Amino acid sequence: MKRAGWLLFLAGSISWASFASALCTGTLEQVISSGICNFDDYSIQVNSFSNIYSTIADPLTASDILLTASAVPGNIGVSINLSVVNNGQFTASTAPPGNFINAEYQIGYTITGPSFFQDETLTVDGGSVNPPISGYWADAYTSQQGLGVFGFGDQSQSLSGLYSKTLDISETLMLNAFTAQNNIAGAAQFSTVTDQFTTGAVDVPEPIAFLLCGSGLLALGAVRYRRRR
Q: Which phi and psi (to 5°) does residue 194 adopt?
């Protein structure tokens, strides 16, 4: 009976593990309301969203922005992807003559992993502006450092210096549209922002440590053998 019980327990454990989430995804409205989401060896909780500093008429809301959190291939970190539902764009366009408009979105979230995060890479894809005086800004701040990207096209920046298993991230996405000479209406847009947090290499004991450990085990075995005799 005991063996049968253990087999049932193991079967249940395997079944549970096989259904473990490989990623967390949903609109910001959905992920904020759902609380902590676990995926692979990591977890994420989206804590806040704001668009109150936008001056465009209809800024994106928490139900318009899609967040996807997944493990980096090789399970060496977390990738956070922000996009607009239905393949939309983060956009600020048609600035009034002699003025400018902006779309600004602030997102706060917490990620936790089994080992220390050490590196961060912030990438903006699908970026374009017209005229060149328009532009966008994306940044992410943690308690250790801040990383920002200002651009007129696709951009990517990386930094090292994260040493924590839990990171509180404050992310800001901003697009500015200016009107240039001859009343050319400005526009700025991008399709996705990806923030990737990776861990360092796992510490592997030096070969000499294995040799010393093996020698110790052999010596211990010899002592026990002599005592028995």
A: -120, 125
Global confidence as pTM: 0.78
Element containing residue 94 per DSSP (H, E): none
Measured CA to CA, the distance from residue 4 to residue 156 in angstroms comes to: 55
CA distances to 30, 39, 76, 120, 205 from 202, in Å: 35, 20, 9, 17, 10
Q: What is the mean pLDDT of residues 42-47?
A: 97
The pLDDT tens digits for 183-200 are 778 889 999 999 999 997
Whether 149 shows a pLDDT value over 80: the answer reads yes
Average pLDDT over residues 71-84: 96
Least confident of 142-146, 183-187, 192-196, 224-228: 224-228
Question: How far is the C-alpha of 229 from the C-alpha of 224, rounded, in Å?
Answer: 9
- By CB atoms closer than 10 A (0-12, 13-18, 19+), residue 167 is buried
Which 3 state secondary structure label does DSSP give 20?
coil
Residue 16 in this model has a pLDDT that exceeds 60: no
Short-list 23, 15, 72, CA closest to 196:
72
Burial classification of residue 201, based on how many CB atoms lie within 10 Å of its CB (0-12 exposed, 13-18 middle, 19 or more buried) = exposed
Give me the DSSP letters along 200-223: -PPP---HHHHHHHHHHHHHHHHH
Structure tokens at 71: 């493990």
At residue 216, what is the residue type? G
Residue entry with tokens 């899609």 = 66
